[in-house]
Amino acid sequence: MQYDAPRFDPDSIVSSVLSGNEDAYRLIVSEYGLLVRGFLAARVYHLVDAEDLAQDTFVKAYEKLEDYELGTNFRAWLMSIAKFLLNNHWRKYGNRATVMEKFRHDIAESIQTELKVSHAEIDESRIPRLLDCISKLPDNLRKVIRSGLEGEKVSLIANDLKLKANAIYQLRHRAHIALRKCMNQTTSPTQL
Amino acid sequence: MKNFANDADYLDILSTWHGAMHISPKRRKELLHRLSHDAHLRTAVADEIEMTGIIRAAQSGEPRWLKLEEILNSSNDTSVSFEDSVLCKLHNKQNKSWFSYLKKPSFAWLAMAATLITAFVIPPKEQVPNGIARIIKYEGSDQSVKENFKFQRGEKFEFTDGLVEIAFQESGVHLIGKGPLEMTVIDNNRLFLNDGEIKLVVPPQGIGFVVDTMERKFVDLGTSFVVQASNLGSRVLVLDGEIAVGTRNKQGSHLMTEGGLASFDRNGSFSPQSNRPSGVPEIAKDIQDSKLGALLGSIIGFPEDTDVYDPNPESSPITNQILPLVRSNFSDLTCLDGLKEGDLTRFRGIAGTYDLFPKRTGLVPYCEANGWIAWYRGKIKAPKKGRFRFWGYADNNLLVAINGEPVFEGSRYDSSFRTELKIPRNNHPSFPCLNARAGFASGQWFEAGKKSVKIDLLFGESRGNKTSSLLLIEHEGTSYEKTYWGQPKWPLFTTEVFSPNEEEELKKLRTHMEAKIMGSFSLPNSELWSVVQ
Question: How deeply is B318 buried, as exposed, middle or buried, from its count of CB atoms within 10 A (0-12, 13-18, 19+)?
């Protein structure tokens, strides 16, 4: 079966919201929700903070919707709000950050350009396929992906799979390559 | 593209990024240097981080965005109406008294919803022989309030002070109001609160009871809850069960469950209970003079510029550092080696904010990012024989041990005291305490009486300088005054009397808590714990 979903047109939705159909804004949230949440979850350690910032992004975008210029790039406009709120978050809580949180921030700073490129390469219309793609991964890769990597989870999954921690990152790396490939396939996801 | 799967730098960057590894300052410099000079590595790390974020978000499920929902619902004229959504919820509960309404045809539904929506045009007073509600008790000095007074439909009621108890005849809803109060009894199952505070206990036959304020409608779904209204807005605290909160004139609703606390201001904005610092004032009690009969202790932290190895860098270095002390029943002090100690200080109870505590106790300068802990220890004797238990909460860490055994742990959710020691504790979300979503924590009962007991008390900050805490004690069998929403006002745990100025400050703190976060406590009277030298 061909994967041929119609392209989402944010401008028509924005026009609809601005003309009084506020409920249509849910379509915007639905289309870009994972993209914004993923962007923030990649940059903020605690998922709950990322979710709060993502919500604030959509609230702010809703409030400022009239400022969006139709015909330009809605995704870029939305992500600029997310980045603005993320920077505020860093400024606000930076003085409470641990040494390692500061180091993570330093890493993010030094790869800022590459992160932009990498984020731009993610096609929001492909993201919904991610969970399906994860389910198609071989057992050990799926286990590594599903366990998450935060904090001590790596050592737990390493014990479980009887591997060293570094091997988990290697598996994760392989899994990510496979997932990107799967998400970008033009046909529906098949066994990887 | 180059394969980095076996590149040690790449793997170290990822493991530190994910918080699984703590590396030395030298290694951190090396990695940042490599990143700044290797474009391929930067791309590989960026791709990995970006993908990890998307996967985290995708696997975490649908978020529950109340603030966004609130905004969309309040501007949405086409969604399911508030009353429909509430009645739908009631339908799910299979409540008998509402079930007959649910079987009505849709036009009847619409009529009923319309009636409810326009109910804010409060109906004229209407005579019902036995009234629809009755005052069953009043304690206060307002002469206009009479016990057994029967309310008619549309009857306005106000009084200046004290507590009133009202029973609704058909629904069995029980209301406690605190003066000054102004409200209008609209019907058997509805009232409008203009100003003041009420607590409702709603029995099964009263499910669906509505409290209107200028900003919101609060619909009971089998519960007890407290509503406050003033000219600034309204607030609700759910003590038990579940309520639906709907906008005043528009549509849409959301549910709040036990422990939920939310404020609604006049311009319509909604503030769920915050998990940010509490805003509780700092109280400058006299802690310096180490006089006879005082429980003494000191504050501990890492020296300035300490870079601590910590296997779990998201937790607090100082808390992790002293875990062996707690695990050894406070006998192994080797974990304190190399730490910086502040001045000897007196224990004067724990209540309020402690942002300036490290400065006031001589710990500054220290490594603020790694946190601080105050440790008080000594022998104390109970004011009377019996069983006692501690109540309280701290942002971040609070632990009490009696005779070396921890009996109370009231730390924040991410404290190592909580995650590592797993000391039995009960959370009470319907008794809000400072900024804790879980409410007050209570510990295990312990015996005290004729013999003195050894106490070790730890409290402090995981990192930074936003600290707040409260520690109270309950004696089994003693009856304590309660707040009108039902929380006993257990006394502060302390070993010394407070000066008049300190008492005044503590009373201000209590007023602040009761007004802002609906928590409370009492000041210890003559029944103080004494310190055995």
Answer: buried
Rounded to two decimals, the ipTM of the complex is: 0.84
**Does residue A128 contact residue A188 with C-beta atoms inside 8 Å?**
no
Question: Position of tokens 């350690």?
Answer: A45
The residue in chain A having the minimum alpha-carbon distance to the alpha carbon of residue B58 is: A34
Q: Is A173 on the interface with B (CB under 8 A)?
A: yes
Pairwise CB contact (< 8 Å): A170 & B15: no
Q: CA–CA separation, A139 vs B279, rounded Å?
A: 49
* DSSP assignment string, B164-212: EEEEETTT--EEEEEEEEEEEEEETTEEEEEEEEEEEE--GGGTT-EEE
Cis peptide before B383 (omega within 30 of 0): no
Contact between A149 and A136 under an 8 Å Cβ cutoff? The reply is: no
Q: Could you give the 3-state DSSP secondary structure of residue A69? A: coil
Contact B281, B271 (CB under 8 A): no
Residues of A in contact with B466 (CB under 8 A): 96
Cβ-based neighbours of B249, under 8 Å, separated by 6 or more: B117, B120
How confident is the model over B96-123, as pLDDT tens digits? 333 333 333 333 333 343 344 444 445 5
| Structure confidence at residue B277 (pLDDT) | 41
Chain B neighbors of A164, CB-CB under 8 A:
none
Task: Report how far residue B87's alpha carbon sits from residue B208's, in angstroms, rounded to the nearest whole number.
Answer: 8
For A:33-72, CB contacts with B below 8 A are 33-35, 37-43, 45, 47, 50-51, 54-56, 58-59, 62
| Cα B200 from Cα B202, distance rounded (Å) | 6
Count H helices and E strands in chain A, helices first: 10, 0
